[in-house]
Write a structure and sequence with these properties.
By secondary structure, the chain is α+β, with helices and mostly antiparallel strands. It has 3 helices and 2 strands, in the order E-H-H-E-H. 42% of the residues lie in helices and 14% in strands.
Amino acid sequence: GLAMPKAPSVVSVVGYARLSTTDQARGLTLEQQIEPLKSAGAERVLVDLFSGTTSRALVIASCWSWLKRGR
């Protein structure tokens, strides 16, 4: 029979950067996390500026929303 063509494979790389209060006290910045993520191919970097599970839940919900749109 005839072979069906394969659907194109689309891969998106999404990064996640989080700056804890401990990291801030040590002088670390979000940029120090974001730049390597972008260099690794992340087309979108989600950033968590707050500590705790509430903030993380919002960032994760944002990620799922973005991924469900097929981007």
